[in-house]
Amino acid sequence: MVDIVDSLTRSRMMSGIRGKNTKPEILLRKALFRRGFRYKLHAQALPGKPDLVLSKYKAVIMVHGCFWHGHQCHLFKWPSSNVDFWRQKILDNVKRDKKCVSALQAAGWKVGIVWECALKGKRKKDLAAMVEGLCVWLQQTRHSDLEISGR
């Protein structure tokens, strides 16, 4: 399928997509803040620069976009143009994610991944219930990981 915009316009559109402070990330962190949790944002010293770092709980939370991180859900669809580029880009992101999670776990961090589909779209989860689950997970003393995706 041919792109409906020229390459300059597409480039400008793609460069406008943020890697941090996304709407799903802000929604989640505001909800956690209201519940009394305090965190650091995008800690550069940690592998993968996690979106939220809750040092008190030795936990990190990453909010992953379903497209960019190759989540197999209703929000993800392989692009039909420039297929080789996008396949390699997304697969590299998935590989890097696994490497970062392993490094964080090896350093003793609990890792929580919240997928974009859990926060938006037709299959999103109830925010209050999701935040309650995150609160319970954060306060657990055992080191378990958590992954939340849409229904």
Outline the structure in words.
The protein has a single domain (about 20-150), classed as VSR Endonuclease (Endonuclease, Chain A, 3-Layer(aba) Sandwich), CATH 3.40.960.10. The mean pLDDT is about 90. It is of the alpha/beta class and about 150 residues long. The chain has helices at about 5-15, 25-35, 85-105, 115-120, 125-140, and strands at about 40, 50-55, 60-65, 110-115, 145-150.
Main attributes of the structure:
single chain; 151 residues; alpha/beta; 5 helices; 5 strands
Question: Can you give me a brief rundown of this structure?
Answer:
The chain is α/β, with parallel strands linked by helices. The protein contains five helices and five strands.
What's the CATH topology name? Endonuclease, Chain A
Rg, Cα atoms, Å: 16 Å
> pLDDT average, as an integer?
89
Taken together, the total number of domains comes to 1
Oligomer: single chain
The helix-strand sequence is HHEEEHEHHE
* Fraction of helical residues: 40-55%
User: What is the name of the CATH class?
Assistant: Alpha Beta
- Residue share in β-strands: 5-15%
Q: Total number of β-strand segments? A: 5
